[in-house]
Design brief:
Length: about 100
Amino acid sequence: MKALKKFMVVHRDPGMSWDKVEENWSKMAEIESATWLRTFYNVENNTRYCLWLAPGEDVLMKIFSGFKIAWRSILEVEETIPDIWARKYRDQMEAEEKEENVREL
């Protein structure tokens, strides 16, 4: 099995009804060639940011074309969380403090 990559897909379909968007979501949850993880959306301007796992961008293009869903971009992405950076920041501050203490001696 091919390794899965994480993709962020941006959709903006002003002409598509929100009922149709929700109908497509119920179908996409069943797709086996890629995994839909989550979507951030704004109903007012019909914009969606969808996170997917897929072997490649081409698989997602085929899925969306099959459902006649337009996309603005499909971008391979990585992820981070604030906890990782907070820890690194604290470690850096502690190291700088120790360095200052050594210089003062």
